[in-house]
Amino acid sequence: MSYPGMPRALRDLAILIAIAVALRFALPSVSLATEVLIFAIAVSGCTLLLGYAGLMSFGQSVFFGGGSYLTAFAMKGLGLTLLPALAAGAVSGAVLAGIIGLFAIRKRGVYFVMLTLAFSQVAYFVILAFGHVTGGENGMTDVPRPALVLAGHTVSALATPGAFYVVTATVFCLVFVALGRLVRSPFGAVVVALRENDTRAEALGFNVLQYKWATFVVAGAVTGLAGALHAMFIGYVPLNNIEFEMSERIVIMAILGGTGSFYGAFLGALIYNVAADVLSSIWPRWLFGVGVTLIAVVLLLRGGAWSGVEIVLRRLSGRGGRP
């Protein structure tokens, strides 16, 4: 569907708002809808790395968990309101990604993957080692949900699930529009060129390490922002936010949905979290079903579930069915 007179960013924003509104009423609870959007934001960072930069990172839990813990510290210790708290989450993720990226992006392939995995394990044990501050295996409890304050006036206390969903949906829309603009910019074109052949890009004069590092930092900031929202959402920072399992979950969601589009990040988060919420209550082995689904997607839909959606949409619009 095309809108000749509408800018691409505005069109994307309209679609994302429609998705957020439909999700609120399509799912059985507003809490589940909120969780889907939070993880969609986290997965979008992984999609930027894997789908556009060609970097498979198993260190996303560092940024997600780091955003959760550091934002919780800031809210409890400094009494931050919503916007500064969200900024703290994004900055936390960006700083952690910046530090890890200085080491990781110098390696390629499996070495890059293993370095990000190693940093994930280090972060996990750091949180355990400082259990007297972080809560250790019990996690950090009593995390407040900050109020939305503008120009010194409290707009909303965000005490209800519906109010917090509106905030989460707003962040979701803005992040996805911003990432869409980023990958369509000259910067994004260079990042894709690096994915295809970084040796040729370097021969053309582009600083490969600099572009990879910047992409890694952006992905970390987005994932840290999602971690901050998650801490506010559940009022608690569980240890598994920074475990390797969280990185694994984010990567699975990215592959399920498809790494060729940020809409795939949303679809992957939707499939995984709905399965976790609905199937887990009726089938203790629900992860087996997720595993089978992942195998089927990898074998039959190389572009993820979103590529299947695109095929259907093209056929309905009469433009053919090629992915």
TrEMBL record:
CDD domains, alphabetized = TM_PBP1_LivM_like (cd06581)
Q: Which Pfam families match?
A: BPD_transp_2
The reply on keyword Repeat is no
Protein's cellular compartments = Cell membrane
Query: Where are the membrane-spanning stretches?
Result: 36-59, 80-105, 111-135, 147-179, 213-239, 251-274, 286-313
What membrane topology does the annotation report for this chain?
Multi-pass membrane protein
**What domain of life does the UniProt record list for this protein's source?**
Bacteria
Predominantly, its location class is membrane
- Has the keyword Glycosyltransferase been applied to this entry? no
MF terms per GO, please? branched-chain amino acid transmembrane transporter activity
Keyword terms, alphabetized: Cell membrane, Membrane, Transmembrane, Transmembrane helix
What are the GO cellular component annotations?
plasma membrane
Q: What is this protein called?
A: Amino acid/amide ABC transporter membrane protein 2 (HAAT family)
**Protein source organism:** Stella humosa
